[in-house]
Amino acid sequence: MRKLMLFGFLAAAGFVAFLVYGGVSTVVSSGTAYAGTYSYCVPQHGLWGGEDAGLGERDAATLDDESLDITAQIIGIGKERDESPRAWQIAIQAGKTESNLHNLDYGDRDSLGIFQMRPSMGWGTPEQLQDPVYQINKFYDVLLTVPGWEEMRPGDAAQAVERSAFPDRYHRWEAMAVFLIAELGGVTDIDDCRDLPPADERAALAIDFALAQIGKPYVWGATGPGTFDCSGLTLRAWEAAGVTIPRVSQDQFLGAGMPVPLDEALPGDLIFWGAGRSPRAVDHVALYLGNNEVVHAPQPGDVVKRAPLWDGGKLIPTAIRPGPATQLT
């Protein structure tokens, strides 16, 4: 089994690795990890987008010995520093994206090492940026200076440290990082279930956030803070209320919460539009305010605004109430 190979290699390398049988199923079934089970819990680390339950194990099985060694160092140094598993996850996703978790002696321009840090940008000397221990500590040091990193999606936090021209690419390795943290770090409880306000108060928090964004420009793919697209606005609005929902509008319809008839929608529910009123063709989402009014980010060239609820031949007769979900198929 690959799990046993992972464990044996890392133990031999002098790093503590805990083998957790059934780790993926344990991790994935625990709270926010999988589509259809979004909860009112904020994960210390974990999956945010309803990933394939076996993806993390499959990705981990492709890692070579150097990648496993560096992963173990990221976890080990994180433990020594008393950093949270979320911090380990962010570092693993960044390292995998930047170098395939290899200590490279080359890169774009003068980039070096696991995280492709640049001497010219003040990350350290070339010698330091070939020392894995220095690099990992430096990554953690910079991560801790990012405001609100603990509440970000892990890939977004990695981007805040790395400042890549391709910010979304760090998300690809969420499942693998969760799997490795469970298998090598002995962490399987991924939820930090906080005391959150009642549902009506959560909706009010989401609405307050969305209304505070009125006037900000629509930019496709944007999730704030200065610009939004339609699903970026609803994502951040419910995130402000302590609820994690998927990123894009169709995924929000299929997996963000409980479907309810449109005529029973309550303030804070998500309202959707799609060609032919089809759930498989969702192309817009708005936050319901009550009294047949929504707040939304409409389209390029426009701004976040309040608007009367409209049909346009595309209004889908089902709203979604964010929270624990039964995934629609």
TrEMBL record:
UniProt key word Glycoprotein: no
Superkingdom, natural source: Bacteria
KW Iron-sulfur (keyword) present: no
SUPFAM superfamilies: Cysteine proteinases
InterPro entries for this protein: NLP_P60_dom, Papain-like_cys_pep_sf, PG_Endopeptidase_C40
EC code: 3.4.-.-
One function term, GO molecular function aspect: cysteine-type peptidase activity
Top-level EC class: hydrolase
Family: Belongs to the peptidase C40 family.
One GO BP: proteolysis
Species of origin: Actinoalloteichus hoggarensis
PROSITE patterns: NLPC_P60
Protein name according to UniProt: Putative endopeptidase
Keywords, in A-Z order: Hydrolase, Protease, Thiol protease
